[in-house]
Amino acid sequence: MPRILKIHLWPVWFLALFGEGKSFKANPIIGSRLLNRLGLHVIRVLLARMVAHLRWRMLAPDMPADLRAQYHRDGFVAVPGFLGGNDLKAIRAELAAYRGPARQMLQGDTATQRILMDDAMLAACPRLKALADDRQMLKFLSYTGAKAHRPALYVQRIRNGWRDGGADPQKTMHADTFHPTMKAWLFLEDVTPEKGPFTYVRGSQHLSWKRLKWEYRRSLRAAVLNDGYSEKGSFRADPDDLDEMDLPAPEGLTATAGTLVLANTNGFHGRGQAAHGMDRLELFAYSRHNPFNPLPGFNIRAISRLEYAIMQTFWRRKDREAERRGYLATWHLIPAEQMLDGVDGK
Ligand SMILES: [Fe+2]
Prior knowledge:
Blueprint: H1 10-16, H2 33-37, H3 40-58, H4 65-74, E1 76-79, H5 85-97, E2 101-107, E3 110-116, H6 119-123, H7 126-132, H8 135-145, E4 152-159, E5 182-187, E6 198-200, H9 209-221, H10 239-244, E7 251-252, E8 260-264, E9 269-271, E10 279-287, H11 301-325, E11 332-335, H12 336-339
Antiparallel strand pairs: 1-8, 2-3, 2-11, 3-4, 4-10, 5-8, 5-10, 6-7, 6-9
Bound molecules: fe (ii) ion.
Fe (ii) ion (FE2) binds at residues 174, 176, 265, 269.
């Protein structure tokens, strides 16, 4: 049956317009060439941006003015020395000794490995727990994410050339979705160019007239794009696209251990090209919420706990499904010691 005739799904597709729904391929309303020609996508982009500015304004006391200015000028802000050398060593030592579940996703030749920093994990890592509860860090995450909400925190290791495979799609410049979202990294080791630093097109988060025109044009054919991501609402931008929008070349943000980087991932970004076999160890957070909700959030701990529990349940269901059908779950379990081999407290 053609998808368009699945009448029972129309309410679901329609409601997705008022939330984070972004797939041009899965949602025929979001992907409608006619509606996008009439401006559906650009209206969502503009409205979401206006609402994000409202929430940023309400959360302004959470971050010093100079850091806010950098964030809005460049699309990212780096805070070197956010974590001191002794804390870094202590956290790395805790991680080296940690035993528990980790999860891994494989994309091309690269593995992304993560440990969710839930209560059970943090109970074994007191220095890491102190960092997860650090008020300043939580405020920075709230402001940049335009939401007073404790985002999910992970220990993350990105391992380049982990296996034979094609190019890692995360290394192509892209915007995560149609509205401002935040991702943050607190690097636990120095990030040199060969480690594949986080890469950002400076200033590309601005909703310039050229960006808006590009978004409009892309929305007309997004449903039939086939790069695996653009059609799902995460538009890829090649050097010609960046040129078209008068944007500069991407730059790799090398960083010393202890640097906190917060970025608006509505700007074009990606992982840097890394030398084969090199990896990055970091704390990672991301914040993505209903872009049309003007409320700045209430920072309720119980809601975060509930989200962690829902995430764990979701993953376990995916594990069972994968086992039943005999394939590897997208985020499959690995032992933490496999993820953290070679990490030490020195
Ligand atoms: Fe991304």
